[in-house]
Structures are given as structure tokens and as C-alpha cells.
Design brief:
The complex is a heterodimer of chains A (219) and B (256). With 219 residues, chain A is α/β, with parallel strands linked by helices. Chain A is built from six helices and 13 strands. In chain A, the strands form three sheets. In chain A, strands 2-1-3-4-13-12-11 form a seven-stranded mixed sheet. A four-stranded mixed sheet of chain A has the order 6-5-7-10, with helices on one face. In chain A, helix 1 (13-22) links the parallel strand 1 (3-6) and strand 2 (28-30). The longest helix of chain A has 13 residues, at 206-218. Chain B has 256 residues and is α/β, with parallel strands linked by helices. Chain B is 36% helix and 23% strand. Chain B starts with a strand and ends in an 11-residue tail after the last helix. The chains are: A alpha/beta (219), B alpha/beta (256). At the A-B interface, helix 1, strand 8, strand 9 and helix 6 of A face helix 2 of B.
Chain lengths: 219, 256
């Protein structure tokens, strides 16, 4: 299988490569449009800032390449956000693969609780903010994913934990295939046709992340 | 919901863990890679590797070690110790570190924090602060591994560093470090409530109840410890089970 990681000014390309290596898969890192188009599967990673990343992609024509891909594509973190229609991060029009919009987390003070009860059954019953601390932005750490859909989450239990680092989130929409609660419920994964996106970092999410990467490679 | 993180810390010297670490069923207890992977398998949420040699000639050893860790560890990890430039950080991140921590060099030249945040993003810039409560009741910043006192208040420096772009604070209370009598709850809570970024509490964790206290009373986002894990006084799985029973949200895997 010809697996390609799109090379651009994103921070986590090495981590994705090593995660693939741990499950015995090799990938090529490239920004060559022909190589990307010809790949069996494409991973679109990302750690960074939306407008800088979009400028970089546009300057190389990679924005058009990504939109036109027909093989399975997995966007990770900023990669997923860039696949949405728009990001509030520096008022950035994005690729528009998913119509969902990317908004900034607004810090809440404890007490104001807009979170859904959707995941209550698998939580400890404790309230993360009952200690009196305000909700911090960005979200850093392990959080649950729930209402899991599509084969991307085959064998992944409802409420499994994944590692998140982000200050912006994709709102819920018709393409939501996983939800997470932070300030409010949001899309921790999106799917439309051949395109998949995850807000968390599967490459840093222990065995759960490895299962999700394997599932993507099996699509 | 977002869980509280448990973070084991390994001290590294010349590419090896500092001796005193006692594990059975491990081929080489001096190998940070193997120990890190073991902690990850036990449920550690992140790892911190602190290079206590951190001399220039050892930098290559460290970057090679970081590269090996990155190949093997499936959870995030932070590397700290003697980092003083954008180039230092660039090498570590390109070898696969997820975050770096800065301490003395950032205090000496606060512009470093902003440079790192601009170049690599705040999410990978952890500001480590060693602090001690003096007789006047105030918490002061200490440098050089606690050997040099400053006149700067811990809260002032933390706020300034966050304004400059630090994405997390790793707070070590020198009054508590090594005592196993519990974490510094008051300064941890003060920082956690004053700052918009996560605070990792360090120093003093000696019993499982101390971790409940630092999350509930100290409002910490994460807790770091070293010897109690290394000497198996507290197991990570055991600790997380205890926290869960005490209504602290923690990651306990559903065998995913």
C-alpha cells in the first residue's frame, strides 16, 4: 500500500511516521501533487496555526490537490480543521470539504455548564470543573470520544480516551462521527465520502489511537 | 470529560536514567526508552524526561535518546533540562519530542518563551518553575535547580511567561519536593485559578491521597512524580483506580 503523509509546515509529521512504524507501516512524506494523487491513502497531519497553514498550502497548490482527492484521506488535528469550511483562528477560509465551521473555545467559569449528558454513563460521575477551576483553553489532555460511527472506530469502545491539544473546535454537524465534550459537545471526528478527520492525536493516543490508525489503513 | 493527568518523570544523565530506579521484569532499568514504554503501558498519561547533565557536549546524546523515545512511546512526552535556545528546541522537536520545558534560561531571558511560542506554538512550550515559600509567606522563583534565589514572586513570573506564550506551567515546590508529605496545595491552586493554561503540580506526592488533594484542593490539571513510581511505592494503575473511586476524572482504558 502506498501511504503518503502530506508534507507542509505542520509540527507532528515525525510523530505520525513513528506511530505508523510502531504498527509496522511505512509512509512517504511528500508535497508532490502527483505522488499525493497517486497514493492509496493520504494522511494530512497538523499542529500549528490555521491561516499560516492555509497560506502555505495555497502557495503550493496543495489546497486544490487535497480537495480533489478520491482515495481515503485522514486529517489530524489542524489537518481536520483545515478540511472544514472556515476557522475563526485568524478568520481563515479553509478547504470546505466538510461544511462544519471551526470556532474558538470560550473559557467558562465553573457553574455555567453547557455540556451534554451524552457520555455520562461512561464517566466517573465526577465533574471536571467541580473543583472550582475555570475551563482552560486550549484543551490539553485525554478526553472521551463517544457516539462513534463508521469503521474508523471499529473495535474502539464508546467513551475511549484520546489525547487532545487544541484551542479551536469543529461544531457538531451532519458529518460528525465522534463527539467529545469540552465547554460543549463538539465534533472530535468528521466523515464525508472518502474524507475523514480527527481532532485528537491518534499518533499519541496509546492503544486506542493505534486501533484508529489501523482502521483507517483498512478502509 | 477532560481527565486529570498522571505524569511520571525520569531524570536522565548521559542518556541513561539516574540510578536508583528499581523495576523487576525489565531488561535494562537504566534505559529511559524501556521505562517510558513500561509506564505508558501501565497508564501514564504523559512522560517527562529531564536531562540533568545538559551540557553542550551531551546534547547529541540527548537528541539521539529523544529520537529513540519518540519511536517507542505512544503517549506524549516532554523533554527538559538546560534548554536555552530556539535551536535546542528545534533539534528536540524534530527528533520527536511533543513538548519541551524551559526554566532558568527563560527567566534569564524571558524573550525566549515568546520566540519558542512563535516558532513552534504555545502547545509545546512548558514553563518549569522551582519555587520556595520563604518566611515572609511569599513564594519566590528559584533558578539553577533550586540553587539560586530570585526576588521574583512565583505568581508574577508565571503570569508573565503565560502572557509571552507559555502553554503549560510545571510547578515544583521546593518546600515539598522529596518530603512525600503532599503537594503544595495553596500555590498550585493560586496559579491554576489565576492562569488560563494548565498547571502541572510537582513535589511532595507520597501517598495516593495526596493526588486526590492536589486535584480537588489544589485544582491542578496534572500531577508529576518520580521516585514513588520508580520505587513502586505507588503503581500508576492502582493510583488511577484510587482517584476514580474518589471522583477524580482519570483515563482508565476501556481496553480499546
Amino acid at each position: 500500500m502506498d501511504l503518503v503523509i502530506i508534507k507542509y509546515n505542520a509540527g507532528n509529521i515525525q510523530s505520525v511516521l513513528y506511530a505508523l512504524e510502531r504498527i509496522g507501516k511505512e509512509a512517504r512524506v511528500t508535497d508532490d501533487p502527483a505522488a499525493i494523487r497517486a497514493a492509496d491513502k493520504v494522511i494530512f497531519p497538523g499542529v500549528g496555526e490555521a491561516s499560516t497553514a492555509m497560506d502555505y498550502l495555497s502557495a503550493r497548490g496543495l489546497d486544490q490537490v487535497i480537495k480533489s482527492l478520491t482515495q481515503p484521506v485522514l486529517g489530524i488535528c489542524l489537518g481536520m480543521q483545515l478540511m472544514c469550511s472556515y476557522s475563526e483562528e485568524n478568520d481563515t477560509p479553509c478547504l470546505g470539504i466538510f461544511p462544519e465551521r471551526v470556532r474558538k473555545f470560550e473559557p467558562l467559569v465553573s457553574g455555567a455548564d453547557a455540556r451534554s449528558s451524552g457520555a455520562d454513563a461512561i464517566l466517573s460521575g465526577a465533574d471536571a470543573i467541580s473543583s472550582g477551576a475555570s475551563v482552560k483553553v486550549p484543551q490539553i489532555g485525554w478526553n472521551n470520544i463517544y457516539d462513534l460511527q463508521t469503521s474508523l472506530f471499529a473495535g474502539v469502545a464508546e467513551g475511549s480516551y484520546c489525547y487532545f491539544v487544541h484551542g479551536y473546535y469543529a461544531s457538531l454537524g451532519v458529518h460528525t462521527i465522534a463527539k467529545t465534550d469540552y465547554v460543549q459537545p463538539y465534533s472530535s471526528a468528521l466523515h464525508k465520502g472518502n474524507f475523514y478527520g480527527v481532532q485528537f492525536h491518534p499518533e499519541k493516543s496509546a492503544v486506542t489511537g493505534e486501533q484508529i490508525i489501523k482502521n483507517f489503513l483498512n478502509i | 470529560m477532560l481527565t486529570k493527568r498522571i505524569i511520571p518523570c525520569l531524570d536522565i544523565k548521559d542518556g541513561r536514567t539516574v540510578k536508583g530506579i528499581n523495576f523487576e521484569n525489565i531488561r535494562d532499568a537504566g534505559d529511559p526508552v524501556e521505562l517510558g514504554a513500561l509506564y505508558a503501558a501501565q497508564g501514564a498519561d504523559e512522560m517527562v524526561f529531564l536531562d540533568i547533565t545538559a551540557t553542550n557536549e551531551k546534547r547529541k546524546t540527548l537528541s539521539e535518546l529523544v529520537n529513540r523515545i519518540a519511536h517507542h512511546l505512544n503517549i506524549p512526552f516532554t523533554v527538559g533540562g538546560g534548554i536555552s535556545s530556539v535551536n535546542d528546541v528545534s533539534v528536540l522537536l524534530h527528533n520527536g519530542a511533543d513538548k519541551i520545558s524551559v526554566n532558568t534560561a527563560a527567566f534569564r531571558r524571558p524573550g525566549l518563551v515568546a520566540e519558542l511560542a512563535k516558532e513552534f506554538g504555545s502547545q509545546c512550550v512548558v514553563l518549569a518553575i522551582d519555587t520556595r515559600r520563604e518566611e515572609d509567606g511569599n513564594w519566590y522563583v528559584y533558578l539553577n535547580g533550586g540553587r539560586v534565589k530570585t526576588e521574583k514572586l512565583c505568581t508574577d513570573w508565571a503570569k508573565e511567561a503565560v502572557d509571552r506564550g507559555a502553554g503549560e506551567i510545571l510547578l515544583t515546590s521546593m518546600n515539598h519536593d522529596g518530603t512525600k508529605q503532599g503537594f503544595a496545595l495553596d500555590i498550585t491552586r493560586m496559579l491554576s485559578e489565576a492562569l488560563p493554561v494548565p498547571v502541572i503540580a510537582s513535589g511532595g506526592g507520597g501517598a495516593m491521597s495526596h493526588f486526590v488533594d492536589v486535584f480537588q484542593q489544589g485544582a491542578a490539571d496534572a500531577a508529576l512524580a518520580a521516585s514513588i513510581f520508580h520505587f513502586k511505592e505507588i503503581g500508576i494503575q492502582e493510583l488511577k483506580g484510587y482517584l476514580y473511586q474518589h471522583q477524580i476524572p482519570v483515563r482508565i482504558d476501556h481496553a480499546g
